[in-house]
Amino acid sequence: METRDTFITSLRGTTIGSVSESSSSDEKFQNQTLRPILKLQNDLFVEVFKNHISKHKNDFYHYSVAKKLQFIENTIQKDIKFRNALKGIVIGLFTIDEYATYILNSSSLNKRMMNMLIERLKSQVLLFEAIDTAS
To answer: What is the pLDDT of residue 1?
Structure first.
């Protein structure tokens, strides 16, 4: 029987981005852990964000693209409960060792995690057009 950590690392896939001996520990964690998890969980993040919009901001669909991009950023930065839910989606796919690394520098790693997620959702803003049912 596979261990949880073995299963998780095989599910996520390999490092995304470059890691060298000169890479900082945060950069290594970002490319070896955060990026693969964000990629794996992308479809879930899109659905979670769509649900958040439908519950909290139905007029989102009438915003200009620039305002939608700003809304994505502001929501993730300022809505603490929502941000914590998004972090949980990522942290749940850490191995035990990765979690130990994460808790040593969670503030910096949370910032990296949320910035990457914001950029990921912003780059897919057109996916949020498809569910416009208000018109």
So the answer is: 54
